[in-house]
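Run log // design_07
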């Protein structure tokens, strides 16, 4: 249930961010939900491998490099989704990753706290 709620929250965040930034485009709500699902699957399958491969630099930067890994998974989502989900540059992906991290942190501390 929590996983599904996270997907819906990320989809709503994708829609909101695409309205504010010109370098980030989501075609419709269906594409936002699908891209959020793809991102979730990439976070389950690919993200742990990327974290293992970049562990020394992640430790060296005290975990800040994880934002770069999040941006990479967003770029991979862009590639897999095609024209319905577009991120113009890696800088925009990095910026979206920062916003998503902050929003998810706030939601974890308020909504998901038991």
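design_07 sequence
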């Amino acid at each position: 249930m929590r996983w599904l709620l996270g997907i819906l929250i990320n989809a709503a965040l994708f829609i909101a961010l695409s309205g504010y930034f010109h370098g980030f485009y989501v075609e419709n709500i269906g594409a936002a939900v699908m891209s959020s699902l793809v991102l979730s699957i990439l976070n389950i399958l690919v993200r742990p491998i990327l974290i293992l491969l970049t562990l020394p630099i992640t430790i060296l930067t005290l975990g800040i490099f994880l934002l770069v890994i999040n941006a990479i998974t967003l770029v991979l989502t862009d590639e897999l989704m095609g024209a319905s989900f577009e991120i113009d540059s890696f800088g925009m992906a990095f910026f979206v990753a920062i916003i998503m991290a902050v929003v998810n942190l706030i939601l974890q501390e308020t909504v998901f706290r038991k």
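Helices lie at 2-20, 29-45, 47-53, 55-60, 65-81, 90-110.
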